[in-house]
Specification:
single chain, alpha+beta, Ubiquitin Conjugating Enzyme, 5-stranded mixed β-sheet, two-stranded antiparallel ribbon, disordered C terminus, EC 2.3.2.23
């Protein structure tokens, strides 16, 4: 396996349109009423928050004292009903409502009268993502894999060389790689790379913790892959080990090994993205590369891609629920932007198409229908589906697992504000059909007569 560094052009990730909601202002208690009260407590309804480790818990909020007013109370009821109607069609699972900002009470430091609109919140979240720097310095990394490993005694040459690496990273990172370095611990670095299109890793986020040893650059940096216990590449172990000749963790030719005078951290990161996260990772396994010319080897490669994509989806869930420190805004923004495309890919692969093949967008589907109607189905202008050669054998198990992952991703992307209404509508229609067939009810009897068209 070669580890020369290909030149990757800088690009920009595509974005999906994100819908926004506008909330009404909550009622205000008059200042005169507040002054006339010595004490008055109103019990707020419990707010259930989804905690991944402890389950649901009650978070009691003791609001400010105010005099009860019937008209204000009715106004608040109307507001709550309006918010509920906005989510009638989404069919959110129990407990998810507490994670959706629109369904939470607006409590600010300025009092109950200041209710920040959802569009304002989305603008704020969008700005954090849009202005997330590719390279930046932070104070420290408490959750870094090597945070408890002291680097030892270092010299001026070590400091100067790391600063040189920092400058290379700041000026030459591809658009799909982001890096944070520590001011207090120059030996620590954290990087994330977006999985390349056309591979089973597309749209995924893959995090790496690195440490520069005291002997750097005479010796290469050490790397740990944040796997979450999942193995999705022969070079990336479930334990977090990164197997790469450039890092000295695998044997390679002289030109593939670390060179203290020429090799850099930038080279390591680009090599992982270009050479490890590739289109057919099955053949990364030593000795398997010769199987590529045989039908049996190609079949196993397709099966490996199926499993790899499933683990990539699980990695997405892991990152969403436990975003690494200093990358929270990137994780939320990336999946908010790419959520719809990821869900579309899941659907496309469940239909029997190859993992990593081009997923037709809404524009492609419209173009295909227009051309077929005008010229017939033989047009070469439309992207043809790439069917999995073993689709008949893999459908049952692959589809069953993907359906579960799809539902989990849909819920997480919904919470992050991704544009998933199309998939929520499909889910609701399916539940309506299932309910109608099981109890002979009409669709209008389901969900209070609410039907998505």
């Amino acid at each position: 396996m070669r580890h020369s560094v290909p030149e990757l052009p800088k690009g920009s990730s595509s974005s999906d349109e994100v819908g926004s909601f506008t909330e009404n202002n909550s009622f205000e208690a008059s200042e005169a009423k507040l002054q006339n009260l010595d004490s008055c407590e109103i019990e707020e309804e419990n707010c259930y928050v989804d905690d991944e480790d402890e389950g649901y818990y009650d978070d009691e909020y003791e609001g400010p004292d105010y005099e009860f007013d019937g008209s204000d109370f009715n106004q608040q009821i109307d507001l709550n009903q309006q918010l509920e109607y906005k989510f009638d069609d989404l069919d959110l699972p129990p407990g998810v409502e507490a994670s959706v900002p629109l369904l939470q009470k607006a409590i600010t430091d300025d009092g109950p009268g200041n209710f920040k609109s959802m569009s304002g919140k989305e603008d704020e979240f969008g700005k954090k993502y849009r202005f997330f720097k590719q390279f930046d310095t932070v104070e420290d990394f408490p959750d870094h894999h090597y945070a408890k490993n002291p680097v030892g005694k270092t010299g001026k040459g070590w400091t100067k060389r790391i600063q040189h690496d920092w400058k290379l990273l700041e000026n030459n990172l591809p658009a799909s790689i982001y890096v944070r370095v520590s001011e207090n611990r120059m030996d620590l670095l954290r990087a994330v790379m977006i999985g390349p299109q056309g591979t089973p890793y597309h749209d995924g986020l893959f995090f790496f913790d690195a440490q520069f040893p005291a002997s750097y650059p005479a010796r290469p940096p050490v790397l740990h892959y944040q796997s979450g216990g999942l193995e999705l590449n022969p070079n990336l172990y479930a334990s977090g080990r990164v197997c790469l000749s450039l890092l000295g963790t695998w044997r390679g030719d002289d030109c593939e090994n670390w060179n203290s005078a020429q090799s850099t951290m930038l080279q390591v990161l680009i090599s992982i993205q270009a050479l490890v996260l590739n289109e057919k990772p099955y053949f990364n396994e030593p000795g398997f590369e010769t199987d590529a010319k045989y039908a049996n080897g190609q079949r196993r490669s397709l099966e490996y891609n199926d499993t790899t994509f499933q683990n990539s989806c699980r990695t997405m869930l892991y990152s969403l629920r436990r975003p690494p420190q200093h990358f929270e805004d990137l994780v939320a923004g990336h999946f908010r932007e790419r959520g719809r495309a990821i869900l579309a890919a899941c659907k496309y692969y469940m239909e029997g198409n190859r993992v990593g093949s081009v997923v037709p967008g809404e524009d492609d589907e419209g173009k295909e229908l227009e051309i077929v109607n005008a010229q017939g189905p033989s047009s070469s202008d439309v992207v043809k589906p790439e069917k999995h050669e073993g689709a008949g054998r893999r459908t049952a198990s692959f589809k069953a697992k993907m359906e579960v992952l799809f539902e989990e991703l849909l819920m997480e992307f919904n919470v992050k504000g991704a544009h998933t209404r199309k998939f929520c509508a499909e889910k609701l229609k399916k539940s309506q059909r299932d309910a109608a067939s099981s109890c002979s009810s009409s669709p209008a009897d389901i969900c209070g007569g609410s039907i998505i068209k």
